[in-house]
Amino acid sequence: MITLKNIVKEYDGKQEGNRAVDGLDLEINKGEFVALLGPSGCGKTTTLMMLAGLLKPTSGEIYFQSKLVNHVEPKDRNIGMVFQSYALYPHMSVRDNIAFPLRERKVPKQEAYERAKETSKILQIDHLLDRKPSQLSGGQQQRVAMARALSKNPEILLLDEPMSNLDARLKLDVRDEIRKIQRNLGVTTIIVTHDQEEALAISDRVAILNGGRIQQYAPPSELFNHPVNLFVASFLGNPPMNLIHGTIEEKTGNQVVATKGFEYILPADRRLDKKHIGKSVQFGIRPHDVTVCAATDPQAIKLKVDLVEHLGSGKLVKAIDPYNKLETMIRLLTDNKLELNSGEYIYIKFKDRKFHLFDMTDNGRNLLHHS
Ligand SMILES: Nc1ncnc2c1ncn2[C@@H]1O[C@H](COP(=O)(O)OP(=O)(O)OP(=O)(O)O)[C@@H](O)[C@H]1O
Ligand SMILES: [Mg+2]
């Protein structure tokens, strides 16, 4: 297990607002595949460099099992790394590239080559051992970098945007491959990415970072269905969650979210504590939880279709309030059968209990999240 305890990293001295990493706590189980996900500059690479030992935390502790490793040198950490620019040694053959970390550790040449061959088989590049990096495709170079990181049998594999240079198709192949290798070898893996689809697809757990802090650390479905705050909710999901400003009000015995365009009655089992009455909230609903309904439906909200985008598997409809009271558009996903054109009126409703309420008086905390 890897444990990060209250890690702080300040690059340029202790000035206010100067923390690249700001009190980070994280536990990663042995054999687990974890992604660090967040916008540019949120501290992902910095965190990975501290795990690798290439950067020292300003404060806080890093443990591998129960051993404090803050002052352990990178070479003594038994870590394999693949960075965004995977920088193979251009003058060396693939074989020598993969064997390099072993040779560095004074493993005899013959043995190092044998192990390079074994690792290259796992990555299906054993037919390329005599080539130079310049004679390989991007995806093959990528796999050589992975093989080099794996050849010394690391306990921990650190990957920083390892697929960012690959085209979309190859990315999918390489990502499946990374996951397979990781499972087979059982190596604890931490991947840094800003590609949410990638993170959600291959990870056991994802840590969402913003401003050097963890917003939420959970399995992908938990993050998607139960975001703890507005940041996580709006960061994850494509097309993004609809967010509509409203206030919590009490009306004829019901609690409602009153927006400028509609009033949404909260079901009895989603009622909030009385202290929230009057609060300013964002009402969140994902596009696939918005459905087209009949005009006569008691929950129907009338909208006007603004744009229809064909996604292949369905359509993304962007609809606006015909009375211009609602300040945002509403996105919904429909199937291909539904014929809709710009300018047409539609009636929509929200699937039961799929909405979220984010407290705008409390940093966007999800009022319905019970952890
Ligand atoms: N060597 C450095 N000196 C000073 N500040 C730095 C240094 N490296 C990074 N930073 C700052 O620390 C913060 C976190 O940077 P980091 O590289 O960890 O971000 P990241 O999450 O990896 O972003 P990206 O997705 O763009 O790679 C940023 O504000 C960055 O400007
Ligand atoms: Mg980075």
Helix and strand topology:
Layout (H helix, E strand, L loop, with lengths): L1 E9 L8 E10 L4 E5 L6 H9 L6 E6 L2 E2 L10 E4 L11 H11 L4 H14 L15 H13 L5 E5 L7 H18 L2 E6 L2 H7 L2 E6 L2 E6 L1 H6 L4 H6 L6 E10 L2 E6 L3 E3 L14 E6 L4 E3 L8 E10 L4 E6 L9 E5 L10 E6 L5 E4 L5 E2 L5
Parallel strand pairs: 3-8, 3-9, 6-7, 7-8
Antiparallel strand pairs: 1-2, 1-4, 4-5, 9-10, 11-12, 11-14, 12-13, 14-20, 15-19, 16-17, 16-19, 17-18, 20-21
Helix pairs in contact: 2-3, 2-4, 3-4, 4-5
Bound molecules: adenosine-5'-triphosphate and magnesium ion (MG).
Magnesium ion binds next to helix 1.
GO molecular function: ATP binding
Keywords: ATP-binding, Nucleotide-binding, Transport
Protein name: ABC transporter ATP-binding protein
What's this entry about, in short?
The chain has 371 residues and is α+β, with helices and mostly antiparallel strands. It has eight helices and 21 strands.
Descriptive key words:
371 residues; alpha+beta; Rossmann fold; OB fold (Dihydrolipoamide Acetyltransferase, E2P); 6-stranded mixed β-sheet; 6-stranded antiparallel β-sheet; 8 helices; elongated; binds adenosine-5'-triphosphate; binds magnesium ion
